[in-house]
Amino acid sequence: MGRKNRTRQRAQQNRDGRPEGKRNRDDAGWGAGYSEIIKENKLFEHYYTELKIVPEGEFEEFMEAMREPLPATIRITGYKSHAKEILHTLKEKYFKEVQDLEVDGQKIEAPQPLSWYPDELAWHTNLSRKILRKSPLLEKFHQFLVSETESGNISRQEAVSMIPPLLMKIEPQHKILDMCAAPGSKTAQLIEMLHSDMDIPFPEGFVIANDVDNKRCYLLVHQAKRLNSPCIMVVNHDASSIPRLYFDQDGKKDILFYDRILCDVPCSGDGTMRKNIDVWKKWTTSNSIHLHGLQIRIAVRGVEQLAVGGRMVYSTCSLNPIEDEAVIAALLEKSEGALELADASADLPGLKYMPGITSWKVMTKEGQWFSDWSEVPTSRHTQIRPTMFPPTDPEKLANMKLERCMRILPHHQNTGGFFVAVLVKKAPMPWNRRHPKSLADVPPADGSSADTPVECPLMDGVCYCSFSSVTELHIDMRCSVCSSPPPPKKMKLFGFKEDPFVFLTEDDPIFPPIQAFYDLSPDFPKLNVLTRTHEGKKRHLYMVSKELRNVLLNNSERMKVINTGVKVWSRNNDGEQFGCAFRLAQEGIYTLCPYIRARIINISVEDVKVLLTQENPFLSKLGDDAHTQAKKLEMGSIVLRYLPDPQDLDAPQCPIDLCGWRGKTSIRAFVSRNECLHYLRMVGVEVFRDKQGKRNDGSTETQEESTEDAEGLSQEADLLEQEGEETDRVSNSAHALVSEYS
């Protein structure tokens, strides 16, 4: 890898501004070394005082806020009905218990909802990791946060990081690209928005989440997998040259343009000083100057792939206009009217922000200022570029409406610093305007075959006027006849070699026993089922949406796919004697259930408690109704379904589907430990373990019931292993990193 590519990769890996190998303060607690960092940087204060991004008279307040620890913020994730149940548990139990507590003389402030986040699904609190572990009541809250985070129902996410997805106005049919996605908190928001209607197992839209760093892609996979969506694909590319993709539409191969793009670019991260306090001593304007070019290239690549009428949200966790307004201004100027800054001021009522600025200067790390490109000496032209300055034409500057950009300052709502802008594409980009709508519409320029290079009469060099090999389109390297670029370079692959994604055919011999055993409905999309091996027995079956299948089949040689699909069945050889070698997987149960018409047992709240607290209960332990249903079924994999009763407001008001196994005389649920704890809380059972690992939930159950309950939970991993349950493990580091509370 060349030096430039390594620099670019390091920049994208460290988009939050911290050096490689460093953990932020939230990851590490108040670890060694941080106490030695003095939160002072005179150059930083001088720079932002001069730029006047902070309202007059507020700069001291701004600096004081920057020196204060960042409050913890959590977001309730998952799909709507389940999110409401989590919110109810938080408000009625945990938040009430902590609001009047004092720890070491410090009064614990009751968590408060973020005023601008819809439906009270995001909260902030002054609780630190250290405080969380000092009180038994807070320890229970801590355990709740850990298990709910692991099961995908709560996400520890900085408040300002939640803003970009909300401004994208996602609808279930949208095709979405997240260009610099790791670690994945924003990606999770995008997936949730696609699945806003739980009754639709396969939304028409999808999310393609990309990151340049192969290792961080696996952390991204872990985050996305918690939501169990068939509509997410994780890919591994340099965002500034992410390949153009194709898909089949009405018998023609068309170029894939995205309805929504999230462009959260690598940045210097000076808005994160409250949590990444090593930025205080490392901050210099050189960081912004070095990243400016990469940020423009990524943003240009984004708008090239945006559909006309689509929205791209550009964001950074930097306050520096060189990374913010300067990039937006360069994009608008290059677009020649094809792009427009949208007014998002009314989209998030309650959010306080400063409008974008229209005048700024560039400062070197030595403190030398330049107000205009004409002032920059020739010796600095390679570092300082014309696009770093505001446009000099007053009319052009006014037409850009840069004041529609949004800069969030830390002291206004006790957050980190952030910048966000919403761009709407009104027409094709100027360098794409002669780009054909469909590849099939473009014959070879001289009647030659698609693989024959054709000399371009108006440009030096060679092009493929047939577009047969085109994967990228560049501004300054294109054929003036057909707008195609030079022949693409062979894609370089780094990191782990992934297993293949192999789609099954409709007549695959796997399907008949599955179809018969579960009585799948005729509209079950067999073609959406895939496996990860060409040869041998298929261990797991996965499902993707129809649209992602289309993308995968048409671009397998063009992109590096890390992961896609949700697991729906796993092989269980013992099941063959009962008629089906594949048992249901909990990960894909909500995707599969609309198509399953047999092997379903309707259960009550009390049945849920029995199934999740007892190791292997006899059928007779179920309620009469569930017991009668279970006796009618043969042994094998089953669905255990709870449907809410609108008249019983104390019971969960959302449906619950659990995978299970009907044995000879017993029944059991196959649910991971954290999901088990989640569903128990939903039905009113609080599970808490003290530091010796003993159960202590404050309930009034008998000693016998308590012992039985604890045994059922502690032996769950063994139960899953006995029945062949296998959890997808993306990487040890991903599991270590994903829960900042644990």
UniProtKB/TrEMBL annotation:
<dbReference type="InterPro" id="IPR023267">
    <property type="entry name" value="RCMT"/>
</dbReference>
<protein>
    <recommendedName>
        <fullName>tRNA (cytosine(34)-C(5))-methyltransferase</fullName>
        <ecNumber>2.1.1.203</ecNumber>
    </recommendedName>
</protein>
<dbReference type="InterPro" id="IPR023270">
    <property type="entry name" value="RCMT_NCL1"/>
</dbReference>
<dbReference type="GO" id="GO:0016428">
    <property type="term" value="F:tRNA (cytidine-5-)-methyltransferase activity"/>
</dbReference>
<dbReference type="InterPro" id="IPR057286">
    <property type="entry name" value="PUA_NSUN2"/>
</dbReference>
<feature type="compositionally biased region" description="Basic and acidic residues">
    <location>
        <begin position="13"/>
        <end position="28"/>
    </location>
</feature>
<dbReference type="GO" id="GO:0000049">
    <property type="term" value="F:tRNA binding"/>
</dbReference>
<dbReference type="GO" id="GO:0030488">
    <property type="term" value="P:tRNA methylation"/>
</dbReference>
<keyword id="KW-0694">RNA-binding</keyword>
<dbReference type="Pfam" id="PF25378">
    <property type="entry name" value="PUA_NSUN2"/>
</dbReference>
<feature type="active site" description="Nucleophile">
    <location>
        <position position="317"/>
    </location>
</feature>
<feature type="binding site">
    <location>
        <begin position="180"/>
        <end position="186"/>
    </location>
    <ligand>
        <name>S-adenosyl-L-methionine</name>
    </ligand>
</feature>
<feature type="compositionally biased region" description="Acidic residues">
    <location>
        <begin position="702"/>
        <end position="711"/>
    </location>
</feature>
<comment type="similarity">
    <text>Belongs to the class I-like SAM-binding methyltransferase superfamily. RsmB/NOP family.</text>
</comment>
<dbReference type="InterPro" id="IPR029063">
    <property type="entry name" value="SAM-dependent_MTases_sf"/>
</dbReference>
<keyword id="KW-0949">S-adenosyl-L-methionine</keyword>
<feature type="binding site">
    <location>
        <position position="238"/>
    </location>
    <ligand>
        <name>S-adenosyl-L-methionine</name>
    </ligand>
</feature>
<feature type="binding site">
    <location>
        <position position="211"/>
    </location>
    <ligand>
        <name>S-adenosyl-L-methionine</name>
    </ligand>
</feature>
<feature type="binding site">
    <location>
        <position position="264"/>
    </location>
    <ligand>
        <name>S-adenosyl-L-methionine</name>
    </ligand>
</feature>
<keyword id="KW-0820">tRNA-binding</keyword>
<dbReference type="InterPro" id="IPR001678">
    <property type="entry name" value="MeTrfase_RsmB-F_NOP2_dom"/>
</dbReference>
<dbReference type="GO" id="GO:0005634">
    <property type="term" value="C:nucleus"/>
</dbReference>
<keyword id="KW-0489">Methyltransferase</keyword>
<dbReference type="InterPro" id="IPR057285">
    <property type="entry name" value="Pre-PUA_NSUN2"/>
</dbReference>
<feature type="region of interest" description="Disordered">
    <location>
        <begin position="692"/>
        <end position="742"/>
    </location>
</feature>
<dbReference type="GO" id="GO:0005576">
    <property type="term" value="C:extracellular region"/>
</dbReference>
<keyword id="KW-0808">Transferase</keyword>
<dbReference type="Pfam" id="PF25376">
    <property type="entry name" value="Pre-PUA_NSUN2"/>
</dbReference>
<dbReference type="GO" id="GO:0005737">
    <property type="term" value="C:cytoplasm"/>
</dbReference>
<feature type="domain" description="SAM-dependent MTase RsmB/NOP-type">
    <location>
        <begin position="62"/>
        <end position="426"/>
    </location>
</feature>
<dbReference type="InterPro" id="IPR049560">
    <property type="entry name" value="MeTrfase_RsmB-F_NOP2_cat"/>
</dbReference>
<feature type="region of interest" description="Disordered">
    <location>
        <begin position="1"/>
        <end position="30"/>
    </location>
</feature>
<keyword id="KW-0539">Nucleus</keyword>
<dbReference type="Pfam" id="PF01189">
    <property type="entry name" value="Methyltr_RsmB-F"/>
</dbReference>
<keyword id="KW-0819">tRNA processing</keyword>
